[in-house]
Every structure is written in C-alpha cells, then in structure tokens.
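Design job #97: recover the sequence.
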C-alpha cells in the first residue's frame, strides 16, 4: 500500500488525511446495489471511523482507515466486487454517467452499454498509463439530468439528429465552454474516447502542468488538437438540443415522472448507520439499486407513487435532505478540521451553524463557502460569501472565492453570523430602492 498526500486517492492508493487513510471506491457507472451499500456500511464501521462520503465524481469514500485495517478492508471490497485490478486502471477508469441511465423515460438512449464498454476499454488499455488521474469522461443520455455543470475532459452527449441518435463529442474549448468536435455512433464512443485520450497524452509530453484537457488546449489551441486527432468530420448534422432539464438540488425528493427519490446529506457525508438505513430503504421501497450523482445526492429508482411518502419519512428520519429549499443546501465546505491536516477550523460544523443566515443572502444555490484554508478545495467559483480558516478563526470574502483578498480578518463564528445577516439586510435594502 502506498498512501499519498494530495488529491485523487483510490482504493489501491489511499490518501493520508487528518483522520487516517481515506479510501475511495469508484462504483461502475455510479451504480450500487443495496447489497453493495450494506457491505460498504459494514466496511466503514469495521475498518474505518464509520464515515462515508459521496464525492463530486459520484464516487464513495471511507474515512478513518488505519494501517492495520487497510488490508482487510481491501479484501472485503474485493469480495463485494468494488475493486479495480490495480491502481493504474482505477485511475484511468474515470467515467461519469447520467445518474438515471437505463431507467429515465426522457433519455434519448440507454447509455449503459457505452459506459460499460468505455470503462472496460480504459481498464484494459495500459498504454494510457500517463493519463492524469483527474482526466475524466462524461457520458450523458440527454434525459432528465443536465451534466453540463460537471467538469469533463471529454464529453459524449446523446442527441437526436436526422432520425438517428448520435453522441455529440465535445472537449473544453480553452475558454469556459465546450466545443463539439465530432458526432459519433454510440457503439464507436469507447474507441474514439481512447483515441482522444491517447492524443492528449502524446501532445502533453514534456509540457509542464498539463493535467487536464483545458490545460493542453490553453497551450496549443483547439484547432491544433483537432488536427492531431485526424477525424473524418463531415459537416455536423442539424440536431435537437433540450434545455429544460434538472441538475443539482432539483434531483431531491420524489419525482413521479421518472419514479425516483433523491436524497442528500450535508456535504455528502453519511454515517455507516444512515448509509445502511438508505440501503434498506432502497430494498424496501425501490428496485434495490442506488445511483450516485455528481451533486453528492443519491437516487433511489423504481419508487412507486404510493410508497413515496413512507420512503420520504424514512429518509427524513435518517437526517436526509429531500427538500430543495432546505437551508443546509445553502452552504458548501471542505472537510476541514480534524479531517484535513491543513485546517484549523471545523468547517462543516461551522457551515451548518451558519446555514440559515447564509440562505438569507440568496434564495437558491450556494450562498456561503466555508473553506479550511485558501486552497478552497470545495469550490473554485465565487460565492456570495466565503469564509477562509485562519488560525482557528475566519477571514471573510464577499462575492469572491477562497483565493481572493479577504475583506475582513480573524472573525469568530458569531462575528461571521452577524456579518452575514447585515450583508443580507443591506442587499434587501438595495433591492428595495
Ligand atoms: S481547502 Fe484547505 S483545509 Fe480544506 S480540504 Fe482543502 S487543503 Fe484542506
């Protein structure tokens, strides 16, 4: 076992954190059976600290593993079928799919065969050993969920074009957007994905700090990359896009049209007991399967309308968030102390204490980012307010991110709460003028 400091841990390469080793599991297609979830809950309780987190790449991680419990944990995860063959294939198999793949009535295509084939191809292709761990693929079925806010180095989006279903293949364009570089038949997506990845590793050789497609495109330009790919590209056929789709907090609660219930925990963090309760609820009220989302929520598909109220009650009793208006969704925080060695403040506890005040800043979306330090791991984008840990207290930035110069320094939690309320009142007064 080689524990690493820094980001992108896996199961074969755990990360050393403030509360021990962090072991990340990458479920195939973001799908877990209730039995696998029960197994993960047991593993977290027996070999870790009992904390389980859902990540923004729809992965699951077990916290608080020790040197002594790591080896039996890996053996147990292997028995559950949750391990890749080795650290290299675990790194490469970075594929995120539409969360309701295969059971979304609005989807243009069942993308599960493409997801499975791409995962298998990435696992097998050892020539891509140089592919950086954060290099990720997204496959969208064009259905209920919009993944355009999810970071992707290569994106396949199912589209209807001229009576047929294609994948629009896009990559970052070097600014803040994506650019469609090709349309392909779904069955050719895996081989095309490998070709794009190989072109990326070839062109990245010898270039410093080129870990993502946007870095490379920034160096060489989109046209150079597309030329190097050498695809046979006719003019793109006219295609229909779809705009009214869900993302983020919209997935919470019961959705009668697609028969699923979405539930989240603050910061995606579950206890072994609540994770077990969720698995049992999925077995009792759903189809026994759970879907992980990049918004750190978990979906239970196959819920009948008549069972939805009882399921809602069960998940609420576990502490789950099912209402998109829940103020706990107003805050985002990194793990903070004691989970990160760089932190001096209990960011997640503090963020929850400030959630109601933060929600007054803006009625929807993230209002407050609480970061343990200026690295700002939980969020790169600006937020209406950002608190940055500073020697046990907080610096405060309005309308910026954790790396911006703070407007105020060394605040207590009470100071921060008061300032958030004052800011909300000022904004209300300005809006009323
Ligand atoms: S932002 Fe700082 S304190 Fe928070 S997880 Fe990242 S490195 Fe740790």
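Job complete. Output follows.
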């Amino acid at each position: 076992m080689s524990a690493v400091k820094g980001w992108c841990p896996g199961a074969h390469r755990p990360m050393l954190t403030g509360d021990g080793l962090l072991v990340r599991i990458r479920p195939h297609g973001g799908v877990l059976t209730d039995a696998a979830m029960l197994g993960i809950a047991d593993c977290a309780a027996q070999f870790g600290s009992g904390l389980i987190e859902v990540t923004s790449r729809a992965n699951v991680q077990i916290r608080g593993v020790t040197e002594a419990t790591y080896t039996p944990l890996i053996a147990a995860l292997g028995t559950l079928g949750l391990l890749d063959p080795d650290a290299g294939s675990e790194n490469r198999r970075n594929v995120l799919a539409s969360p309701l793949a295969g059971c979304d009535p609005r989807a243009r295509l069942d993308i599960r065969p493409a997801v499975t084939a791409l995962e298998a191809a990435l696992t097998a292709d050892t020539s891509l050993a140089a592919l950086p761990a954060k290099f990720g693929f997204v496959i969208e079925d064009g259905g209920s969920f919009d993944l355009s806010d999810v970071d992707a180095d290569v994106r396949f989006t199912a589209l209807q074009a001229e009576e047929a279903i294609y994948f629009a293949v896009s990559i970052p364009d070097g600014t803040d957007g994506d650019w469609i570089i090709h349309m392909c038949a779904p069955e050719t997506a895996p081989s095309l994905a490998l070709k794009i990845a190989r072109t990326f590793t070839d062109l990245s050789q010898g270039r410093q700090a080129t870990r993502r497609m946007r870095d490379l495109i920034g160096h060489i330009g989109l046209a150079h990359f597309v030329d190097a790919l050498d695809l046979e590209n006719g003019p793109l056929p006219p295609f229909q896009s779809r705009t009214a789709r869900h993302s983020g907090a919209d997935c919470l609660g019961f959705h009668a049209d697609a028969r699923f219930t979405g539930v989240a925990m603050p910061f995606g963090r579950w206890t072994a007991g609540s994770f077990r309760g969720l698995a049992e609820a999925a077995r009792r009220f759903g189809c026994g399967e759970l879907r992980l989302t990049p918004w750190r929520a978990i979906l239970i598909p196959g819920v009948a309308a008549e069972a939805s109220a009882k399921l809602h009650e069960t998940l609420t009793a576990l502490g789950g968030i099912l209402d998109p208006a829940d103020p706990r969704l107003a805050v985002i925080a990194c793990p903070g102390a004691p989970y990160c060695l760089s932190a001096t403040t209990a960011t997640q506890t503090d963020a929850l204490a400030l959630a109601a005040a933060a929600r007054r800043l803006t009625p929807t979306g993230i209002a407050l980012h609480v970061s343990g330090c200026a690295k700002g791991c939980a969020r790169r984008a600006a937020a209406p307010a950002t608190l940055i840990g500073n020697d046990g207290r907080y610096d405060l930035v309005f309308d910026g991110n954790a790396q911006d110069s703070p407007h105020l320094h060394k605040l207590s939690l009470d100071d921060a709460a008061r300032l958030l309320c004052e800011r909300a009142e000022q904004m209300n007064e300005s809006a009323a003028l």
